[in-house]
Write a structure and sequence with these properties.
This protein is of the alpha/beta class. The protein contains 13 helices and ten strands.
Length: 337
């Protein structure tokens, strides 16, 4: 479904009153927790998203919300209170500090960032952003890659190359292999790892920025592996353990307190794999967060928490309809017909 069609569909749901009805029904159905899954904070209208969410939901830090959700097990259902909702930002981009943090302080809205500490303070973009960046910035006219010639004087060729690079980065069998591959691609495309002024918001956070946000009380942090590999693709189980366990150890050293929540990179079951699940449980996290769509209840497995996609570039009406659950239910119904 195209974005314009989604906005039209969401507007119909919102102005017909179905989104409001879905929110009411969720409140009447007992304790629920919605975890929104953002990444970047710029490139859309985050302020409008936050104003809507503040008006209609009860916004908490993730750990606080999870404590409340699971403490309600076996107790009488609470009716009439606004549904719990948590804003999460994966990876830790610079614009989470320059834009989201500024809005959090102004609007008094808490949120949680899942950090990739292996890249904190780096002056280069995260590796998983490099496909599009390298393909768009190169001045090379064509390149042979993966037994195919890509003609880069056309947008289609650049897009195809970006996707091919992204695929290889995701499927790397080790972080070292991914970094070596990326170094070779940068050399072949004659693009440096340094960024332009316009690209600075995509850089990783620094430790000073992280400490300032946490000291404010409006931002909390969780773990997201050391280097954000696709865990299911890693060949060596010991590397899976290091990515998951060392992430917690380093964050606890830097932040000075326990880190209890972990978000899987990519987050779908086939991308996590059995070794990823095992390593996360072995590392001792209390709660594990996926990217599987869903709204959490006290009966949700705390090691398989669901999230709702919250891309900031989407119209606030789409976000409102998705957070209420009504948009996904109706789309699923239509697709099954």
């Amino acid at each position: 479904m195209g974005e314009r069609v989604k906005v039209y569909f969401a507007a119909c749901l919102y102005y017909s009153g179905l989104v409001k009805l879905a929110r009411w029904w969720m409140q009447r159905s007992g304790q629920r927790l919605i975890i929104l899954n953002y990444h970047r904070a710029t490139g859309g209208d985050l302020r409008r998203h936050l104003l809507y969410l503040r008006r209609h939901y009860r916004l908490l830090h993730l750990e606080e919300a999870l404590e409340e959700l699971y403490s309600s097990r076996g107790t009488e259902r609470v009716r009439g209170r606004r549904t719990l909702l948590v804003l999460t930002f994966d990876d830790g981009y610079r614009d989470n500090y320059t834009h989201a943090f500024a809005l959090a302080r102004e609007l008094r809205i808490p949120f949680t960032i899942f950090l990739v500490p292996g890249y904190v303070g780096s002056c280069s973009p995260f590796p998983w952003l490099e496909g599009e960046r390298l393909a768009s910035r190169t001045q090379v006219g064509k390149i042979a890659f993966e037994e195919r010639i890509y003609h880069l004087d056309h947008p289609k060729g650049r897009n195809l190359l970006a996707r091919a690079i992204d695929f290889r980065l995701r499927k790397a069998q080790s972080v070292a292999e991914r970094e070596a591959f990326l170094t070779g691609v940068r050399r072949a495309l004659a693009v440096s790892a340094s960024v332009t002024t316009e690209e600075e918001p995509m850089l990783p956070l620094t430790w000073d920025e992280i400490r300032e946000m946490e000291e404010s009380g409006w931002v909390s942090f969780g773990a997201h592996t050391m280097h954000h590999p696709m865990l299911a693709s890693l060949e060596d189980p010991s590397e899976v353990d290091r990515e998951v366990g060392q992430c917690r150890t380093l964050l606890e050293q830097k932040l000075g307190h326990p880190v209890r929540v972990f978000a899987y990179p990519f987050g779908q079951p086939k991308e996590v794999g059995d070794e990823g699940q095992r390593a996360a449980k072995t590392a001792g996290y209390d709660w594990l967060v996926t990217t599987v769509y869903g709204i959490n209840t006290p009966q949700t497995d705390p090691h398989q928490l669901h999230r709702v996609y919250g891309e900031v570039s989407r119209h606030w009406l789409v976000m409102a309809a998705q957070a209420s659950g009504v948009m996904n239910r109706l789309m699923k119904f239509v697709l099954q017909r």
